[in-house]
Design a protein that fits this description.
alpha/beta; Glucose Oxidase, domain 1; Rossmann fold
Amino acid sequence: MKAILALEDGTQFVGEAFGATGTVVGEIVFNTGMTGYQEVLTDASYAGQIVTMTYPLIGNYGINQEDCESHKPQVMGFIVREHSDMPSNWRSTKTLDQYLKEYGIIGLKGIDTRALTRILREKGTMNGVISSDPDFKLQEWMEQVRNYTIVKPVDQVTVKEVQHYEGTGHRVALLDYGVKTNIIRSLRKRGCEVYVFPATSSSEEILSANPDGIMLSNGPGDPKDCVYQINVIRELLGKSPIFGICLGHQLTALAYGGDTGKLKYGHRGGNHPVKDLAKDRTYITSQNHGYAVLADKLDDKKAVVSHINMNDGTVEGVRYLDTPTFTVQFHPEASPGPMDTGYLFDEFVQLMNAYKETKGGLK
């Protein structure tokens, strides 16, 4: 079945439909990962977005029961160069096409995804529409495409009630702004007992769990839209060690009076080099974000940049000087991507140890 992709600037690509059929509008972004499409599809940070994979062959190892990063696909649509409908992997239980159909996700295949990616790199992220409707009339959709915005996606993807995961070590309160499952796995691997709180939770509700540490998760959308969550983080600062990832990193900077800005086309993929300035070592990281903390807006009496992106120099990590708080823009839990920066979870455990030993004080 024929399908079309139209960008808000009028650019059109014609290919074939797979997955669900119909019409969908979203923000068009690209991911440079060679593998990990199942994790990408289920990453809540992609809520409201149509994802393009730059690697040309997608679907070749199917879909399995273990690699989801949330309970369902979170993307609005999915674009690939070539879709494999004959997957080969011992864990595979269904094809990518079957999976997208099951959850009503519209797919587009057979277009030049690298040409599309070049457009997004040159002009910046744009809205677009995918349609397999034979009666689709582009002019009737263009106003909606141009006016499309992702409205309060954190409220849509967060858990609705507190979830509890047993552990024998530190008790961690995890604020779910769109958390990836592997963040929970990474904490539990280190023995942590985890309480996952909805993004709408108050500071009183979070602190009532008597946590040894607080984790701020990844999530979708513009961090400046999360006014309530920023105020809650401000109330939590200094009450317990805090570790923020991705959106949690951005919200912490805003809580400290810093600022964020939208990147031209974002960082999405598993091959982004980041330098840990304290270790004087560069790591390859997994990333998925369209906004960044602005270094020149950080108060140097309260914050120091700990990590930088080696491609464009943007802020990838911050350590705060007056509270036991550190944050990173990339994903140390990976999934998909390299696990090189998993040591940051160990540093979080060490910070909780030190905080406990000093009875709530900083060393």
